[in-house]
Amino acid sequence: MLRGFMLHDIVAAIGNIDVVFGSVDR
Prior knowledge:
Helix content: over 70%
Distance between the termini: 37 Å
Order of helices and strands: H
Low-confidence stretches: none
Number of helices: 1
Number of strands: 0
Structural class: mainly alpha
Mean pLDDT: 84
């Protein structure tokens, strides 16, 4: 359960970073 939560948190963090970098890139 903890691992699943961590995985979801990592995915959310990566998505957030992707949005930020995408905004800066464009």
